Amino acid sequence: MMNISPLHYELTPEDPFSHQFHVTLTIDNPDPDGQVISLPNWIPGSYLIRDFSKHLLDLTAETRSGRQLSIEPKSSSEWVLEPTTETVWVEYRIYAWDLSVRSAHFDQTHAFCNGTSVFLSVQGKTKVPHKVTLNATDFTDEHHWRVATSLPRIDVNAEGFGEYQAESYQDLIEYPIEMGSFLELSFDAVGIPHRIAITGRFSHEKLDRERLLHDLQRICETELAMFGSPYPFQEYLFQVTVVENGYGGLEHTNSTALICAREHLPFQAGTDPKRYMEFLELCSHEYFHSWNVKRIKPRVFLESDLSKPAYTRQLWWFEGVTSYYDGLFLHRAGLITEDEYLNNLAQEMTRVYRMPGRFRQSVAESSFHAWTKFYQQDENAPNAIISYYTKGSLIALALDLIIRQATQNTKCLDDVVLRLWEQKGEPNVGLEEGEIEQICEDISGLDLRSFFDRYLYDTNDLPFEEMFAPFGMGFSLRAATSLSDKGGKTDSDESLLTLGANVIDTEHQTVKVTHVWNYMTAERAGLAAGDEIVALNAFKVSNTKSLEQWLRTYSVGESVSCHFFRRDELFQSTLYFEQSVKDRVVLSRESDQTQLRWPLK
Ligand code: ZN
Predict the structure, then answer these.
(1) 0.70 cut: is pTM over it?
(2) At residue 355, what are phi and psi to the nearest 5 degrees?
């Protein structure tokens, strides 16, 4: 006989001041040999072992008749309950003090949690329905808290407290839960209801709601139109947390959790258009993931074992292609001009050309080693690795150009995405290594083995000058004109001497080195990450601006003495200036008269 009686969790935001959720879990028919329960070690979409169980407290279990059961740890995130045939009641608390989209956070202003942080998984019962009751408390009533989640509702009150149900454990962890007094807005895109719940401190009155709703709707409709019906969800939720500084998101099947800075939002006056477009790009990115990675996904992500890493070489596709499209959709949706799009793209490309690590690690390796390298970047990252997001997006761009050229603009990268959606996403079968490359060959009609060998599995730079030319586009590299130069077009014709280091201002008026590029001026002078530059040419250097001024007064071939502290020890050295490195990308339209079209059709 199959046991399909659901598991039942009750989640209570018990104490905002000690940041603790209270959770109970009822298991009918537990494993008579000793029920195993566990908490995931990672959350899908974020490839790092996070050991969520470190925040689990007060774990106890008893039978329906009230007999306390002993609990034996099996590993740091698994426990075995004393054998019983009675219904079991498990009780525990979760400490929630990580204000990020990946775990849980709870204080007097709001509560947010991912299922991977709060819900124990029950071995052998991960496929049964998982019922969740969200309980209000005196505190949440008093402060008029409501719930924002896309968990399927069974029986909830006006505030959203009550009963929900997911199909399985894997389904359950797809719906982060926000509780608080957030601002909720809504719009329809092709008839599908979309909600935005914005939590955090900002002026609700001054938010330009009309603009936000209009722009988000345009993005969602443009993406939905590309894929067409049947659409993958019946409703969608943007859960936004607004803070002083922050930028990031995590994709889920019909929602996304985002974190952003106040300046990313549009207000009736004083909106920073660049920051706001960054926010829209983030929304566009996570929304695209609804298809690309949540449904079209690597085979190893179909039913991931969340106790250990799931390795794939395909993240270049899932993050790179998504990064390529996030900005492109802003242009397709009419929210940025071609010029703005090209400049954003040039800055994105610059991030790749500034990484000498791109000659040491291929994008496929970057994906495979995401767990230890990309997600655990240190001061040597620019020299050691390449991002599967940024260089992955350049491979996506190159494929788009190649397919357009090979098919006289009758096909483009969209056709690859759509084929993947039809064959792998909609039917929910995972992708084996190499299958994406095969579909790119089918759509383009080209043998692309050497392309993927050179640019995906090896470390060569993509030949963009050559690739862009038939489209009337110019690609060039120039030297930086300031320390904060991100690439793209510039009005300045002054190029700056290359220091070969990233520097930031400190609060005590020195300049701190954060990253040193291999085999360049700073490294040759013996500077290392963490060092604080205090003087050049025996004059005090108080901030990056004055350092930049000094760099402007010297020429190639000259040198300057440099004093710096490493820990509390003073060092003296000399910076020798060489030819400036050309690592800033510029894109420009050279001709409108070409037959081949890009970025639009
Ligand atoms: Zn992403």
Answers:
(1) yes
(2) -105, 100
